[in-house]
Write the structure tokens for this entry.
Amino acid sequence: ASRTTLVAEKVVLAALCAGASGLLLTVVVAAVYDLDWGRAPQWLPAIAVASLAFGALGVAIGALARDVRAASLLAILLALPVALLALIPSGAVSAGLYDVVSVVNALFPFDPALDAANSALTGADPGMAGSLAHLAVLAVAHGALARVALRRFG
């Protein structure tokens, strides 16, 4: 199989695992917190596209690190701070620092996944379309990064 096929297979496998756990978690949360089950059809695209974006990010980290232990450590060291950045509201820091946070957030799937999930679960504005498009672009970009890393280091 080609390297591109290998990357695609790994992204899809990671997305299937993430999607299954995300869907299970969403169903449990919906049952416990009385979410609107009428919005359930909107949960699926949010979970699916976010799972692809996170899967591609994980495959890119793995391809760049080239070692399972190093990739796991790198993923944790990268994911925790970036995930926390996605939670910073606009008025909590200065405008200049918020712009920097926004640029960092745009490079990773945490913030758009949070926006897509919020919209899917509650119907919050601005809707899911922009977040899903952002996540799709990130999935392609991180997949391409993984493919380039395989060529460079492989």
Notes: The first helix runs from residue 3 to 33. The chain has six helices and no strands. The mean pLDDT is 94.
